[in-house]
Design brief:
Elements: E1 2-5, H1 11-18, E2 23-27, H2 30-38, E3 46-48, E4 61-67, H3 76-86, E5 87-98, H4 100-104, E6 105-107, E7 118-120, E8 128-136, E9 139-147, H5 150-159, E10 162-170, E11 185-192
Parallel strand pairs: 1-2, 1-4, 2-3, 4-5
Antiparallel strand pairs: 5-11, 6-7, 8-9, 10-11
Helix pairs in contact: 3-5
């Protein structure tokens, strides 16, 4: 079984199901969990639950995916420990987060996009709450997250008994983009020892 932690509306679960994974989604939002299971191409069942207290028995999954969710979990360290609990020994966690450099600073306005200076605001190592508001299609949305330095994630993985097998810093491939010079996302694959 593959556990989709913070599955949202189930988009990734549907992709994984098409690749042969048996998916169980978990999301704290009843609306998103309902959207995941009622979609015409549902990836599998979904339970409403907190990532820091997964409503699943110990050792039931051989893979867990946390795609763009752990940066939004208040108790990230507890969530990582819970993922370790529900994984079998040798099971894998595959996670993607917004790279911490995104939340540590900002590009200065003015210069041509591809050459704008990027500054770190405050301390890279200081955890702090963030709220980003954007508007799309006439809807305003506010996203809450927490800036955490990279070692907070790697320490949580190590403390939960994971061994990191691979990391990738993903950037924009558009050479004219300001994000061509800095990582947008961090992908990690870890095995539960």
């Amino acid at each position: 079984m593959t556990l989709d932690v913070g599955c949202g509306e189930g988009r990734l679960g549907r992709d994984l199901a098409r690749l042969g994974h048996r998916i169980v989604g978990v999301d704290a939002s009843p609306t998103l969990a309902r959207a995941a299971v009622t979609h015409a191409e549902s990836g599998g069942p979904c339970v409403i639950g907190d990532a820091a207290a997964l409503p699943l028995p110990t050792g039931v999954a051989d893979c867990a995916v946390a795609f763009m969710s752990l940066q939004d979990v208040d108790a990230m360290e507890k969530a990582v420990a819970e993922i370790a609990r529900v994984l079998v020994a040798g099971g894998h966690l595959v996670m993607a987060i917004t790279h911490p450099v995104n939340s540590a600073g900002r590009f200065l306005p003015g210069a041509e996009e591809a050459s704008r200076p990027f500054i770190i605001e405050g301390s890279w190592f200081e955890r702090r709450m963030l709220a980003d508001t954007c508007e799309r299609g006439g809807h305003t949305m506010t996203f809450h997250s927490e800036h955490r330095p990279l070692h907070d994630y790697t320490d949580a993985l190590a403390d939960a008994g994971f061994l990191i097998e691979r990391t990738r810093e993903v950037t924009d491939t558009d050479t004219g983009s300001k994000w061509n010079r800095l990582p947008l996302f961090l992908h990690l694959r870890a095995v539960r020892t």
